[in-house]
Amino acid sequence: MQEHPSMLILIAVSSHERQMGVGGLALVLKGSKSKRVLERGLHDSKVFGALLYHPVDVIENFIKQLIAQKYLRIVDVGQEYAIPVLELADAGKEALEDQRDIPLQPVRTPPILNESARITLQAFQKLRSVAAVAELRGLAENTVWDHLLIAVRLGLIASTDVVEPQKIKLILETNARLKPKGLKELKQSLPEDIGYDEIRCVLSDKP
Fold first, then answer.
1. Residues 14 and 91 in one domain
2. How far is residue 5's CA from residue 109's CA, in Å, rounded to a whole number?
3. In this predicted model, what pLDDT tens digit does every residue of 178-197 receive, in sequence order?
């Protein structure tokens, strides 16, 4: 999919109207393979991974901007207790019908090491393996990477604790030489065995 983020989000809400809230939709658009997504079969959605190249917090903030601009709205469903879910507002339906892109700002949410991320970090400091921590905690590997990225951004660990030195060197040299506009362009210029999570980790490290 090559659509603007706003259009992809509107398509996603239209396809899953009143089925998920901001956090759940962000995970689907990110392409998360978390238990929350897999158990509900959302990994089969046509918009799964449509915003793969954006961090989850940026996707959540995209969605919140569309809510603030009244293209989306939150409604409560559920009989025993209210569950906030997303639906298209009239302006969102019109924008979707007209295929009209809506300008959105890629805003980052300040990182917070919550309890789950703290446990992940402690496990990683002992095991030194993303796969091993994922298996131990019953998490998807990309969730473990998300937790470690927060720890790197907070300066609790360094990218050298997570990524191989030769990969770090290549990522930094390629980034300095190309000055890419985004992660996708940088990734395409690197060897296939260097993943997006490794790139984010290196570029997020404190100087």
1. yes
2. 18
3. 988 778 899 999 999 999 99
